[in-house]
Amino acid sequence: MFRFKNAPLISGTQFVAIIVLTITIFLVIDFGRRTTAGYYASQAEEQLQQEIQGLLQKQSELRDRRDYVASDQYVEEWARRHAHMARPGDQPLVLVTPQSPQARVELAQSTAAPAVTPVPNWYHWWMLFFGD
């Protein structure tokens, strides 16, 4: 019996070319993946740098505020505005308004200013929307 020798489906050159092509495609895909990962890493680094700059600026502002609050100028400003304190030689002005309606009427009558008739609220709205 005779056996016929079958020719291989692909030659050795074609086999090597397929292997080289497969490795090349793998390297291209890996290069793209690494490039994308590097891009995202650089974006994250840039974002962190901006956040660091913002925090450093805030730290500087807080230090300036801390130094200002520790100064005598701030203490004096706080004492005058919030604690309503006066320095020696100042003449504070204290306004006292009467609490009862009868005292208000007596106070209004005792002043020399002429009595002004109150304008109704609807008139102010009319003037606002329609004018004269």
Q: What would you note in describing this structure?
A:
The protein has 132 residues and is an all-alpha fold. Helix content is 67%, strand content 0%. It has a domain at 11-87. The chain starts with 11 loop residues before the first helix and ends with a helix.
Q: What number is the mean pLDDT?
A: 85
Order of helices and strands: HHHH
> What portion of residues is helical?
55-70%
The CA-CA distance between the termini, in Å, is 125 Å
Query: Which segments are poorly predicted (pLDDT under 50) over 5 or more consecutive residues?
Result: none
Shape: elongated
Q: Strand-residue fraction?
A: under 5%
The gyration radius over C-alpha positions equals: 44 Å
Number of strands: 0
Number of helices: 4
For the report, how would you describe the main beta sheet? none
Class inferred from helices and paired strands: mainly alpha
Give the tags.
elongated; mainly alpha; 4 helices; single chain; 132 residues; 0% strand
Topology of this protein?
Layout: H1 12-69, H2 72-81, H3 101-110, H4 121-130
Brief account:
With 132 residues, this protein is an all-alpha fold.
